[in-house]
What we know:
- The protein is α+β, with helices and mostly antiparallel strands.
- The protein has three domains: 31-141, no CATH class; 145-261, no CATH class; 276-365.
- The protein contains four helices and 19 strands.
- The chain has helices spanning 2-15, 276-310, 313-349, 356-365, and strands at 31-37, 41-49, 55-63, 71-76, 84-85, 90-91, 96-102, 108-114, 124-133, 146-150, 153-155, 162-163, 167-171, 177-181, 186-190, 204-211, 214-221, 265-267, 270-273.
- Helix 2 (276-310) crosses helix 4.
- It is elongated and about 100 Å long.
Amino acid sequence: MKKTFxxxxxxxxxxxFINKVSAADCNxxxxxxxxxxxxxxxxxYELKADGSGIANLTSSYKLVFNPxxxxxxxxxxxxxxxFINKKNNNLKCLDSIFILPTAGSQTTKSVxxxxxxxxxxxxxxxKLTKEENNxxxxxxxxxxxxxxxxxxxxxxxxxGQKMDITTTIILDNQNKLNYSFSNGYQFGGSDLxxxxxxxxxxxxxxxxxxxxxxxxxxxxxxxxxxxSEMEGDNNPSGDEIINPNPPTTPGGSDNxxxxxxxGDIQCGELKNIPGVIPKLTNLAVNIMKILVPIALVxxxxxxxxxxxxxxxxxxxxxxxxxxxxxxxxAFVFFFTVLIFQFMFRIVATVTENNTxxxxxxxxxxxxxx
Length: 369
């Protein structure tokens, strides 16, 4: 009997310290994997924050049905800011992405990817099929201070020729400028300073070109008066790029550049549920799962100690009996909640979004689509 009692006590105490590990828990800050797939394409975005207020973005593209073994050539206009939920200071997958097939050949298939769709610009919608998200913060402070988008660039070595290259400049919460470019272009240098972006998105000059397999863009301060601040050259290589004055926060009125949803969730017919509610209910379930067994164990230990102090054999037997019963109840309660959470997590992955099952999974496991 004593060995059985000790074994049960050991199992219960070890179970209390089991940690739930999420596949998306890549670090202490926000990270997410967004998968979009239909019969023709599979597109995956992986995002990982480093605490600066933005995130690193990597992507992969695949032709799902490809009998001619064509190479998929992608012009992707999405950037990190499309996946940043500034309201909750974390990452959130877009519900859909949109593509426009463009000129290709027998060996290549070319598409352009947009975050918002219309029949002319992006007629094909690909919905989010899987999201892995640890729902952590992008940073300890605000998400980022400012994001500025520039739609064109000067072609290096020419006078007045333009290139369709989208440049995103983010001022993070550490007063550092971060650059990203479309069409596979990389950062080639800049004399811009963080203080230029504190109050607004300034007018700047962007020049892009290529050398061999390297594609790069350089950024310079806008020319002032008749002179230029471009490395002492008084004749800029092209017209200055005029900032389109995008909104300073995601979800603004300019729907051509920024994500227009900010992380609220939908559960069946209920829409726009604040994302903090599932977090609180999940926290309450996890606290109850641990505190109830602990309370039962502590109560049993107190009763057992009182009986031992009284030196009454009958009381000690009763206390020991209660102790074992409460341990069994604590054991059953903990694993019932754990199994309940696990079952709804598994079932929700094979059912459609916004069903009763997915709603329960959202609120007890904080896994919301």
